[in-house]
Design goal:
Rossmann fold, alpha+beta, six-stranded mixed sheet, about 25% strand
């Protein structure tokens, strides 16, 4: 297999640098220096390489809300574009910002698969399908690295669930592992990825960071010449990862590699050649990003960099391209402003949308994003009324309330203490958030592993009278008081679950009666014995007014059309926790049904980064999946609903008629924390094909604002030795009255198989009445299947090639005997 060489520094020069380092210096380079940087070696011209998380945007290296960055469309939104050019542009915008901020690499894209639709991190994943995820993941890699910034696709491999993710193991047969779960990573490596992050979980009982066979596929079989890095705190020992081929332990300072690795080499347990290989890979990465003397950053063609002013256009275009219209009865969309004198914009997510899922690293845009409600009011000239229809149920960060530090400065006062209780604070700062996390080091304070405490003080002025719910939690024993009165307390997490509890932002809450306009002092204290991560989360839920549903229904009845924005809150989809089912909350489903009952022109916008169960879909006029579309959500949505833009998306995941229609429904970890992937394969749309079940919204489906005809499909096959390449050519016609973009999709079913898998796709944009002859090129993997002991082979027999507009709309069936 060929790999793309994106500016590989000469190995002779790297070896010359290596020879200047003694064994201890070499081993030191195999672990990070901090949570975001590698160890420098200035004596040989090696600087620190700065690496940050990046699937949704550049996470602050210190998780500081004052470090702002672009908020990208989430993984499922990028997957919904079915457009490598759009994904590449978004990645280039992120990498351009990384360059401006001095970052050298981003941990992105997430190439795990949305096999269940219930993973807490589905929103980060591009698709349930390996081909779509791989093609778009490769485009993301190219967009990032075109700016001279390293892309680290993650998490190798089968990190597709959040339940016990650090301890569980996926049981996967070799065929499925190769054809499905490794496929996106293979395509990313072929695109030239400079790094890869390994997963927390194991595969077939072996932790991924210690799996020599897995890392051999990556390095030896695929020819990957980049750097492998552990997920944070994933390592449990020295010898396993070192001997398997892991190159860099993160975060720093070193725990299992670094000096421990030097000792293992001295004891004859690890060969020096293994350390040298890891260091050469780090040097190669440093050369590519310009962190090694004598090497300039490797960048793409001039003009590809996206400046700060141009990024908003890139993200707005991507958001519209991701919006997926799956129902549009009576062509209710686009809305005609002349016919809509009164527009009701309803739902909990209209004024308070969910822009991202909950991970360790939240993204803070430089300016507050415009919510859909404000954007629609700006776009439509008529009267726009709003009712949320739903009461809030979970405490929100204190930044959403009128809070100040004791001296009146807006924000909250944080006091950091080290050592014994009662000691003077070593750092005092005013912060604008009330959710904090630090890996390894607290800037200005020191290592998180030292015992200490954190004190948050906020003067809260209630806006309404009544019972307020206040909550707090963190990485240590946590107490919350209001005007000195105890309200809530939470014990420290169990040592083995600190990362999980912090990721889930778990809080204990208490109720307190407050009076509007009367300030109270909220004090939260968190005492920690020391941990690899420190965190604190504080929230408040104000009294909710009665009658929210009735007011929304009344507003809908009196409107010419309704835009009802429903979906997730930040806490719905969370790192370290999976969902029980794919439904919206019962109160949201009731809101949809009651609003639709009084207004037949109801458009439901689903603001969720996952497939959402939609038994209510046939009761409304239109359904638009908006996903988590990033910081340009509001303006992009207003433009699409008004018809200024087309909703360009196609479903990157399947929405079945019921969760029970998924092959993965009900699967659980066994007593050994193993999850049997093989028993549930295939998943997603291929399982529905096998069992002849219809989907509510099939994989690949979606409508724009025009109509299409795909006809005259032809297949050309070229077999040269063991490789088989093919090209499908079709005529595509825009039969509607508007310009638009369609996606031609090609699926292949091999001999003896009972389902077809996506093999290729291409987009075509045409003016009304125009047609074009377009081609989809299928690569050598299209007809190959993995055979244990033989590798990739082409099964003899009849291969069907199906062509159409979705996995459930494939009218053209071509065949070839191989």
């Amino acid at each position: 297999m060929t790999t793309v060489d994106h500016g590989r520094p000469g190995d002779a020069a790297l070896h010359a640098v290596l020879e200047q380092l003694d064994p201890a210096q070499r081993a030191a380079l195999t672990a990070g220096e901090t949570g975001w940087s590698t160890v420098p070696a200035p004596e040989v011209g090696l600087g620190s390489v700065v690496l940050v998380d990046g699937p949704l945007g550049l996470v602050s290296p210190t998780f500081d809300e004052r470090d702002t960055s672009l908020l990208l469309p989430c993984g499922t939104a990028l997957g919904a574009t079915w457009d490598p050019a759009v994904v590449r542009a978004v990645a280039a915008a992120e990498a351009s910002e990384a360059r401006r901020r001095g970052h050298d690499g981003v941990y992105a894209p997430n190439l795990n698969l949305a096999r269940t639709g219930l993973s807490g991190r589905t929103f980060e994943m591009l698709s349930e399908d390996p081909q779509l995820a791989g093609v778009l993941g490769a485009a993301f890699v190219q967009g990032v690295q075109g700016q001279g910034v390293a892309s680290f696709p993650k998490h190798l491999v089968c990190n597709d669930t959040e339940t016990q993710r650090q301890r569980m193991s996926a049981t996967v047969d070799p065929v499925t592992l190769r054809e499905v779960y490794l496929r996106p990573f293979e395509l990313a490596v072929r695109a030239g990825a400079w790094g890869v992050m390994t997963a927390y979980n194991g595969v077939n009982g072996v932790p991924c960071a210690e799996d020599a066979g897995l890392l051999s596929v990556l390095k030896d079989e695929w020819g990957f010449d980049g750097l492998t890095v552990s997920d944070y705190f994933a390592l449990k020992q020295t010898l396993g990862p070192a001997l398997a081929g892991l190159d860099l332990e993160m975060p720093g300072p070193a725990i299992h590699l670094g000096p421990q690795l030097a000792a293992a080499v001295a004891a004859g347990q690890v060969p020096q050649e293994r350390v040298d290989d890891a260091v050469l890979r780090l040097l190669r990465l440093a050369g590519r990003v310009g962190a090694l003397a004598g090497h300039e950053r490797v960048v793409g063609a001039p003009g590809e960099q996206v400046d700060a002013d141009g990024a908003a256009d890139v993200l707005s275009t991507a958001a519209a391209a991701a919006f997926t219209l799956v129902r549009n009865e009576g062509a209710v969309l686009p809305l005609d402003g002349a016919e809509v004198a009164r527009l009701a914009v309803l739902g909990p997510n209209a004024a308070r949308p969910c822009f991202q899922g909950a991970t360790f690293g939240r993204i803070r845009p430089a300016s507050p994003p415009v919510p859909p409600l404000d954007a629609l009011r700006a776009r439509f000239a008529g009267e726009v009324v709003h009712e949320p229809g739903i009461a809030l149920t979970r405490p929100e960060p204190l930044g959403a309330f009128a809070v100040t530090a004791p001296d009146g400065t807006p924000g909250v006062l944080l006091e950091h203490h080290v050592g014994e209780a009662g000691a003077e604070p070593v750092l005092t700062e005013v912060r604008g958030d009330s959710s904090f996390i630090w890996f390894g080091t607290v800037p200005g304070v020191g290592p998180t592993t030292r015992p200490g405490s954190l004190r948050l003080t906020a003067v809260l002025t209630p806006q309404v009278s009544g019972v307020h719910l206040l909550g707090a939690g963190g990485s240590g024993d946590t107490t919350l008081t209001v005007d000195g009165r105890p309200v809530a307390d939470r014990p420290a997490p169990a040592p083995q679950d600190v990362m999980g509890e912090v990721a889930r932002a778990e809080m204990s809450t208490g109720a307190v009666e407050l009076t509007a306009g009367v300030p109270v002092t909220v004090v939260v204290e968190m005492h920690s014995a020391g941990s690899r991560v420190q965190a604190l989360t504080v929230g408040c839920l104000a009294p909710q007014p009665d009658g929210a549903l009735a007011r929304a229904v009344a507003a809908a009845a009196d409107a010419d059309a309704v835009v009802l924005v429903v979906g997730d809150v930040l806490e719905t989809s969370r790192e370290s926790r999976d969902l029980d089912d794919s439904a919206l909350p019962a109160a949201q489903e009731q809101l949809i049904r009651e609003v639709a009952a009084v207004n037949p022109r109801t458009v439901v916008v689903v603001n969720a980064g996952r497939p959402v169960h939609a038994p209510w879909a046939d009761e409304v006029a239109a359904v638009l999946f908006a996903w988590f579309p990033g910081q340009e959500f509001g303006p992009a949505l207003a433009g699409v609903l008004a018809g200024d833009r087309e909703p360009g998306g196609r479903m990157p995941v399947t929405v079945p008629l019921a969760d029970t229609d998924r092959s993965t429904w009900g699967e659980q970890l066994d007593a050994d924390l193993a999850l049997d992937y093989t028993a549930t394969e295939p998943v997603g749309y291929r399982y529905l094909q096998r069992t002849h079940r219809p989907a509510r919204f099939p994989f690949g489906s979606g409508e724009g604002y025009t109509s299409w005809d795909v006809r005259d499909a032809d297949l050309a096959v070229d077999r040269a030795g063991p490789a088989v390449r093919a090209e499908v050519t079709v005529t595509v016609a825009n039969t509607g009255a508007r310009a638009g973009r369609d996606v031609v999709q090609v699926y292949v079913q091999g001999p003896g198989e009972d389902s077809a898998r996506l093999a290729g796709f291409t987009g075509v944009r045409l003016a009304p009445g125009d047609s074009d002859r377009v081609s989809v090129v299928l690569d050598e993997r299209t007809f190959q299947r993995w055979e244990v002991g033989a590798g990739w082979v082409v099964p003899a027999g009849r291969h069907e090639v199906r062509v159409g507009r979705s996995s459930a709309d494939l009218p053209h069936v071509l065949a070839v005997d191989l």
